[in-house]
Amino acid sequence: MNTVNIVVAIVLAAIIGLAVLKIVRDKKRGVKCSGCPHSCTCSVKDSCD
Amino acid sequence: MKIALAGNPNSGKTTLFNAITGRVEHVGNWPGVTVEKKEGDIKQSLNPKKENLIVVDLPGAYSMSPYTSEESITKDFVLTEKPDAIINIVDATNLSRSLFFTTQLLELGIPVVVALNKSDLTEEKGIAIDIPALSDALHCPVIQTVAAKSANNGLPELINAVITVVRSGKKQVALNIGGVRNASTKEQFEKADKKRFAVVNTIVAEVERRKVSSEKQTLQDKVDRIVAHKWLGIPIFALIIWLVFSISQTWVGPWFADTFVGWIDLLYESVAALLGEEVNPVLGALLLDGIIGGVGAVIGFLPLIMVLFFCLALLEDCGYMARVAMVMDRFFKKVGLSGRSIIPMIIGTGCSIPGVMATRTIKNERQRRTTAMLAPFMPCGAKLPIIALFAGVFFSDNSWVGTSMYFLGIVVILLGALIIRQITGDFSRSYFIMELPEYRIPSVKRAAISMLMRAKAFIIKAGTIILVSNAVVQMLQTFDWQLQVVAETAPETSILATIASPLALLFIPLGFGMWQFAAAAVTGFIAKENVVGTLAVCFGITNFIDTEELALVGGAADVSSVMGIGAVAALSYLVFNLFTPPCFAAIGAMNSELESKKWLAAAIAFQLSMGYVLAFLVYQIGTLATTGSFGAGFLGGLIAVAVIAGTIGYLMRKGSKKEQSLPEIGVVKA
Amino acid sequence: MMALSKGKINTPYTVNCINTSQEDLREFLFTLGCYPGEKVTIISKLASNYIINIKDARYSIDEDLANAIMV
Cβ contact (<8 Å) for C58 and B229? Predict the structure, then answer.
């Protein structure tokens, strides 16, 4: 493994990890669909910032 | 301190709510946009002492008498949550009706402050209102507001008045309307309410002077007569929608998009250069083609979508859409719906989820369910990249593609409603009555804010759901079942290809029987933008838009040759994606509004059948017209379509036999 | 007494009764201020829809409803 591959692997893991984290967090807050412009209206709870 | 906002529909509650909280909730210049209560904190600039002030926006109501069918969210809220004060938003141009509700609010024993909204319109209408006299008559503060204006709008005074009233701790004094307190039967309440109107009329006669009677014909009425004309109404609507698509997809949109896509390409190239030759091809491809390419292909359509949403926001704001509901009422009535069903559909052009939720205000169960089931057929924001992609690649950016998809959506909805009416055997009709809002010059600022909100949401979605989907698609495409990297010469051995291939067989009669298209259609259920992303990943195309660059290498025909389908099959694929079930989130919304697993299953089956049949017709008829013979898999497809048509026909016959009782008439109000 | 649908444009009529079996329709119209004794004016007739003025607001109603409002 050369350094480039390690860096790329870390970057990929970070990007995908963050995306998944955001989706999971949104789901937990009750937002049905990440990024839906009406998330606040669609979700049962009032969970918008 | 909890403050409730209550008032008649379209009196500007949500506009005021947004103005005092700094939030951006959906506002439309028509009644019935808000269906759920919404909470927010009052923004700092209006709350210098940093008190704990929470505002709750309630859906509009004309009345809250017991025994009336009026949705009584207001009453339930007041009884269960006990707000400290009520801001009653009163349309200053329509005191004589609005004060009826005001007098009812005054009886709740909670301090009321009247916000006399739209006060900027009174002058031009020749209305003069004696504010102190009104305040005296109602025993509560009356503050003039113009919630739509950003400064000098009376809002600081309004909030101050609310705080003062609550601090004083006085109980709200109700008006003396004979018989209200002792009323217990329906007749007594009715009698009391007549007196209530009489009291309101006396107050209005005292405080309001009108130079021009509201019955007089105005310029607005002349405009109505043209845009809602029997024959001209539909062509005008079509022209306006065509203009919206032209501006966003042909004139202004691509101009922004070209620059924007240039940046994405630049990013792609610089990352590629940075990685150099040493990088592991699997990792490099995942980052470059899977993530940057796939997400970039979707994000590239952002400018087009932003321009489109800007135009739609202007259109909603000016008051025209209520007229569209009026024009369409005639056609919707023929299939057992009413103009009321139009509103969820228009909201659905932004996102199907709030569109489906807006069906909640429809009283008749069959009509409500039918509308919730059919509203996702309107091309929502997430479907626009698919439309833009195929319009750009196969039809040289013609705006008729978008326009015709919009109207095909309406036709399919009408057809669907007709079928559902036959199947359920419920032939009830509804009265239609809807308040017509005044036309106004749409606010560029509001449209811009609405556009930016949607853009932000689009980016978040692209960076989360779409990014992860694309990464997964890229990985599934890279490996085979033995987890070996797939040879470049044999892409059909990948996991993705082997999963999607059987499905692709079903699509042969529709003209796109290739595993890439099948895979894209499936990922589209997660989010419709994925269709574009997955196609980008599967075909290794990162740029669908930069027409200039494509023109250099042989025009848009380049992308279409990579995909290996012709224009007819492309149109068929587009139709298939627009008229199959929406994304899972929208299906979830349908589930909660339909309130029945049977209906949900029927809705999804119906949507799948609709997508399949329409795509089949487009492809086979299109192929017959262009080449003189039917396309591939005609016979197999014909059998499938015949089975679907037969099933629906059988259900319709069974349903219409059920119909014995007299048609009941339900009321629909907006 | 006649149905509002037979009425002339720009003529104020006084509502006589709401001819419907649908109680909630009557109640809803009441809250808008359309009840016996109140005034209603037809502003325009368009295809099968009517634009009417009740109190100080414009409403779009359909033919069925225009037939139900007796003036």
Answer: no
